[in-house]
Amino acid sequence: GNSVTQMEGPVTLSEEAFLTINCTYTATGYPSLFWYVQYPGEGLQLLLKATKADDKGSNKGFEATYRKETTSFHLEKGSVQVSDSAVYFCALSDLTNAGKSTFGDGTTLTVKP
Amino acid sequence: EAGVVQSPRYKIIEKKQPVAFWCNPISGHNTLYWYRQNLGQGPELLIRYENEEAVDDSQLPKDRFSAERLKGVDSTLKIQPAELGDSAVYLCASSSGTGFSYEQYFGPGTRLTVT
Asked: How confident is the model at residue A54 (pLDDT cuts 50, 70, 90)?
Protein backbone atom coordinates (compact mmCIF):
# COMPACT_ATOMS: atom_id res chain seq x y z
CA GLY A 1 0.00 0.00 0.00
CA ASN A 2 0.87 3.67 -0.07
CA SER A 3 2.81 5.34 2.72
CA VAL A 4 4.42 8.67 3.58
CA THR A 5 7.38 9.09 5.91
CA GLN A 6 8.32 12.47 7.34
CA MET A 7 11.31 13.45 9.40
CA GLU A 8 10.53 13.30 13.05
CA GLY A 9 10.09 16.45 15.03
CA PRO A 10 9.86 18.61 16.80
CA VAL A 11 12.01 21.05 14.87
CA THR A 12 13.04 24.26 16.60
CA LEU A 13 14.66 27.08 14.63
CA SER A 14 15.54 30.69 15.15
CA GLU A 15 13.84 33.33 13.05
CA GLU A 16 15.40 33.73 9.57
CA ALA A 17 16.94 30.26 9.67
CA PHE A 18 16.72 27.86 6.71
CA LEU A 19 14.10 25.12 6.97
CA THR A 20 14.06 21.64 5.50
CA ILE A 21 11.48 19.02 6.40
CA ASN A 22 12.13 15.71 4.69
CA CYS A 23 9.37 13.64 3.16
CA THR A 24 9.62 10.36 1.26
CA TYR A 25 6.82 8.25 -0.09
CA THR A 26 5.91 4.80 -1.35
CA ALA A 27 3.13 4.49 -3.89
CA THR A 28 1.89 1.80 -6.24
CA GLY A 29 0.64 4.31 -8.79
CA TYR A 30 1.78 7.76 -9.90
CA PRO A 31 0.70 10.01 -7.06
CA SER A 32 0.28 13.72 -6.63
CA LEU A 33 2.11 15.15 -3.63
CA PHE A 34 1.04 17.76 -1.11
CA TRP A 35 2.15 19.70 1.92
CA TYR A 36 -0.50 20.74 4.41
CA VAL A 37 -0.03 23.08 7.36
CA GLN A 38 -2.00 23.07 10.60
CA TYR A 39 -1.79 26.17 12.76
CA PRO A 40 -2.72 25.87 16.44
CA GLY A 41 -6.46 25.46 16.90
CA GLU A 42 -7.17 25.36 13.17
CA GLY A 43 -7.84 22.75 10.50
CA LEU A 44 -5.34 21.56 7.93
CA GLN A 45 -4.73 23.92 5.03
CA LEU A 46 -3.16 23.07 1.71
CA LEU A 47 0.24 24.76 1.52
CA LEU A 48 1.48 23.55 -1.87
CA LYS A 49 1.23 20.66 -4.28
CA ALA A 50 2.94 19.03 -7.27
CA THR A 51 1.28 16.66 -9.69
CA LYS A 52 4.14 15.25 -11.75
CA ALA A 53 7.84 14.54 -11.60
CA ASP A 54 10.14 17.59 -11.41
CA ASP A 55 7.21 19.91 -10.68
CA LYS A 56 7.94 22.49 -8.02
CA GLY A 57 5.14 23.60 -5.75
CA SER A 58 5.53 26.93 -3.99
CA ASN A 59 3.53 29.18 -1.69
CA LYS A 60 4.27 31.75 1.03
CA GLY A 61 8.03 31.30 0.52
CA PHE A 62 7.83 27.52 0.91
CA GLU A 63 8.93 25.22 -1.91
CA ALA A 64 8.99 21.49 -2.60
CA THR A 65 10.09 19.60 -5.71
CA TYR A 66 8.59 16.28 -6.79
CA ARG A 67 11.57 13.92 -7.15
CA LYS A 68 10.44 10.64 -8.67
CA GLU A 69 13.91 9.12 -8.73
CA THR A 70 14.31 9.51 -4.96
CA THR A 71 10.56 9.33 -4.17
CA SER A 72 10.88 12.51 -2.16
CA PHE A 73 9.07 15.82 -1.69
CA HIS A 74 11.12 17.80 0.82
CA LEU A 75 9.73 21.08 2.11
CA GLU A 76 12.08 24.09 2.22
CA LYS A 77 11.96 27.73 3.17
CA GLY A 78 14.88 30.10 3.03
CA SER A 79 14.01 32.27 6.01
CA VAL A 80 11.41 31.18 8.55
CA GLN A 81 9.30 33.50 10.66
CA VAL A 82 7.69 33.05 14.05
CA SER A 83 4.33 32.90 12.27
CA ASP A 84 5.47 29.72 10.47
CA SER A 85 5.25 27.79 13.73
CA ALA A 86 2.79 24.98 12.99
CA VAL A 87 2.52 21.29 12.22
CA TYR A 88 3.39 20.34 8.64
CA PHE A 89 1.98 17.23 6.96
CA CYS A 90 3.24 15.62 3.78
CA ALA A 91 0.60 13.70 1.84
CA LEU A 92 0.01 11.90 -1.42
CA SER A 93 -3.10 11.37 -3.50
CA ASP A 94 -3.28 8.26 -5.61
CA LEU A 95 -5.37 8.68 -8.72
CA THR A 96 -5.35 4.92 -9.28
CA ASN A 97 -7.23 4.65 -5.97
CA ALA A 98 -9.88 7.30 -6.63
CA GLY A 99 -7.65 10.03 -5.30
CA LYS A 100 -7.39 8.54 -1.84
CA SER A 101 -5.05 10.57 0.33
CA THR A 102 -2.34 9.18 2.59
CA PHE A 103 -0.77 11.47 5.18
CA GLY A 104 2.51 11.43 7.04
CA ASP A 105 2.57 11.79 10.81
CA GLY A 106 3.36 15.49 10.76
CA THR A 107 6.37 17.53 11.83
CA THR A 108 6.00 20.23 14.46
CA LEU A 109 7.96 23.39 13.72
CA THR A 110 8.62 26.02 16.36
CA VAL A 111 10.33 29.24 15.33
CA LYS A 112 11.80 31.37 18.09
CA PRO A 113 12.40 35.11 17.77
CA GLU B 1 -17.07 32.08 1.92
CA ALA B 2 -17.69 30.06 5.07
CA GLY B 3 -15.35 27.17 5.70
CA VAL B 4 -16.13 23.65 6.83
CA VAL B 5 -18.04 23.78 10.10
CA GLN B 6 -17.81 21.07 12.72
CA SER B 7 -19.47 20.65 16.08
CA PRO B 8 -18.87 20.13 18.84
CA ARG B 9 -15.24 21.20 19.04
CA TYR B 10 -14.62 19.13 22.15
CA LYS B 11 -16.40 16.16 23.65
CA ILE B 12 -15.65 14.12 26.76
CA ILE B 13 -17.62 10.95 27.34
CA GLU B 14 -17.34 7.76 29.34
CA LYS B 15 -16.64 4.50 27.57
CA LYS B 16 -19.67 2.61 26.27
CA GLN B 17 -21.56 5.86 25.76
CA PRO B 18 -22.69 7.00 22.29
CA VAL B 19 -21.38 10.16 20.64
CA ALA B 20 -22.12 12.01 17.42
CA PHE B 21 -20.21 14.58 15.41
CA TRP B 22 -21.70 16.96 12.89
CA CYS B 23 -20.16 18.49 9.79
CA ASN B 24 -21.40 21.12 7.38
CA PRO B 25 -19.21 21.30 4.25
CA ILE B 26 -18.50 24.28 2.07
CA SER B 27 -21.54 25.15 -0.01
CA GLY B 28 -21.51 23.37 -3.33
CA HIS B 29 -18.93 20.78 -2.36
CA ASN B 30 -20.20 17.36 -3.39
CA THR B 31 -17.41 15.33 -1.83
CA LEU B 32 -17.20 14.97 1.94
CA TYR B 33 -14.59 13.12 3.98
CA TRP B 34 -14.36 12.00 7.59
CA TYR B 35 -10.86 11.41 8.97
CA ARG B 36 -9.58 10.29 12.34
CA GLN B 37 -6.34 11.79 13.61
CA ASN B 38 -4.66 10.08 16.52
CA LEU B 39 -2.24 12.06 18.66
CA GLY B 40 1.06 12.54 16.87
CA GLN B 41 -0.16 11.01 13.62
CA GLY B 42 -1.59 12.16 10.34
CA PRO B 43 -5.26 11.94 9.40
CA GLU B 44 -6.62 8.55 8.33
CA LEU B 45 -9.67 8.36 6.09
CA LEU B 46 -12.75 6.78 7.63
CA ILE B 47 -15.32 7.42 4.92
CA ARG B 48 -15.79 9.43 1.74
CA TYR B 49 -19.10 10.58 0.30
CA GLU B 50 -19.96 11.64 -3.22
CA ASN B 51 -23.21 13.53 -2.68
CA GLU B 52 -25.24 11.22 -0.43
CA GLU B 53 -23.46 8.02 -1.46
CA ALA B 54 -20.68 6.51 0.64
CA VAL B 55 -18.16 5.54 -2.05
CA ASP B 56 -15.28 4.51 0.22
CA ASP B 57 -15.98 3.23 3.73
CA SER B 58 -13.37 0.49 3.79
CA GLN B 59 -11.63 2.00 6.84
CA LEU B 60 -14.79 2.61 8.88
CA PRO B 61 -15.13 0.18 11.84
CA LYS B 62 -18.67 -0.73 11.02
CA ASP B 63 -19.36 -2.60 14.25
CA ARG B 64 -19.48 0.66 16.18
CA PHE B 65 -19.17 3.53 13.72
CA SER B 66 -21.86 4.79 11.39
CA ALA B 67 -22.20 7.83 9.18
CA GLU B 68 -24.87 9.46 7.12
CA ARG B 69 -25.12 12.32 4.69
CA LEU B 70 -28.77 12.90 4.10
CA LYS B 71 -29.61 15.16 1.16
CA GLY B 72 -25.95 15.22 0.22
CA VAL B 73 -25.11 18.26 2.34
CA ASP B 74 -24.24 18.00 6.01
CA SER B 75 -23.10 14.78 7.60
CA THR B 76 -23.11 13.03 10.96
CA LEU B 77 -20.57 10.52 12.24
CA LYS B 78 -21.65 8.36 15.18
CA ILE B 79 -19.84 6.02 17.52
CA GLN B 80 -21.83 3.58 19.63
CA PRO B 81 -20.54 2.41 22.00
CA ALA B 82 -17.35 4.42 22.38
CA GLU B 83 -14.13 2.73 23.50
CA LEU B 84 -11.04 4.20 25.11
CA GLY B 85 -9.14 3.78 21.85
CA ASP B 86 -11.57 6.07 20.05
CA SER B 87 -10.01 9.11 21.71
CA ALA B 88 -8.77 11.20 18.78
CA VAL B 89 -9.54 14.26 16.69
CA TYR B 90 -12.24 13.65 14.10
CA LEU B 91 -11.78 15.81 11.02
CA CYS B 92 -14.27 16.60 8.30
CA ALA B 93 -13.16 17.83 4.91
CA SER B 94 -14.91 18.70 1.67
CA SER B 95 -13.98 19.26 -1.94
CA SER B 96 -15.74 20.16 -5.16
CA GLY B 97 -14.65 16.88 -6.76
CA THR B 98 -12.47 13.83 -6.40
CA GLY B 99 -8.86 13.49 -7.37
CA PHE B 100 -5.63 15.36 -7.05
CA SER B 101 -6.82 18.46 -8.84
CA TYR B 102 -9.50 19.10 -6.22
CA GLU B 103 -8.28 20.67 -3.01
CA GLN B 104 -9.64 19.31 0.25
CA TYR B 105 -10.77 21.93 2.76
CA PHE B 106 -10.62 20.81 6.37
CA GLY B 107 -12.71 21.80 9.35
CA PRO B 108 -11.13 22.47 12.76
CA GLY B 109 -12.02 19.00 14.03
CA THR B 110 -13.77 17.56 17.06
CA ARG B 111 -11.47 16.41 19.84
CA LEU B 112 -13.00 13.33 21.51
CA THR B 113 -11.81 12.08 24.88
CA VAL B 114 -13.19 8.77 26.10
CA THR B 115 -12.63 8.11 29.82
From this structure: very high
